[in-house]
Amino acid sequence: MSEVAERRRPGRPRKERGAGSARTGILRAAAEEFAERGYEAASLRAIARRAGVDSALVHHYFDGKADLFAATLEAPLRPDRMLEIVLAGPRDAVGESLVRYLLEQLDDEKSARRIVVILRTVLGSGPGTRMVREFLTREVLSKLAALSDEPDATLRAELAASQLVGVMMTRYGLQVEPIATAPADELVRRVGPVLQYHLFGAAGTPVS
User: Fold this and answer.
1) How is the chain split into domains, by residue range?
2) To bridge 86 with a disulfide, which of 26, 79, 97, 190 should be the other Cys (CB 3.0-4.6 Å)?
């Protein structure tokens, strides 16, 4: 089959440039769209228009908006996928599983350096703060809140997330000792039950 015929097969997105440059152009357009409009308002269709490609090509390279957003950040960790994996396991192990997964993904030098860059972006006052906040609210916090039927479900989710962010900041960003070099199992044992309490514990009941 000729190259032209191959490109025109039904269901195959038509590429107008090399695969590498097309993907790079989409990432560049996505970064601009997210920065200008935030995560919520940005759409894959608008990103495709900005990149000058068919929207099918965006779907060809990326699973969805969350996947594309993570790619623009070069994130070493996909928190939305982390939840999918952890929540597929036992409910009574969610807290410890979240901490363990986080440490497994970030406990190497390259991932640690990248997460520090992202944390600095989030803590700044530019457009990066808004788009990361919106991403976390939609793809992470809302899913954590859905685990509870309690009226304070949103607060529970945010408190649980704050524990994970705290671990990232102290272990990888500030490198505060002894948490920076503490064994992963030790952090799982200590922090996991706190997350479990925030998500599922009875209000007013101290952490055991």
Assistant:
1) 3-73, 79-200
2) 97
Tens of pLDDT, residue by residue over 23-77, are: 999 999 999 998 888 888 999 999 999 999 999 999 999 989 989 998 998 888 8
Q: What's the rounded Cα separation, in Å, for the pair 193 and 201?
A: 10
Task: Kindly tell me if the per-residue pLDDT of 128 is higher than 60.
Answer: yes
Tokens 């524990």 sit on residue? 163
Both tokens assigned to 64: 């969805």
Query: How many other CB atoms sit within 10 Å of the CB of residue 205?
Result: 8
Q: Give the CB-side neighbour count of residue 51, counting CA atoms within 13 A.
A: 28
Give the tokens for residue 155: 């607060």
Q: Quick one: fold of 3-73? A: Arc Repressor Mutant, subunit A (1.10.10)
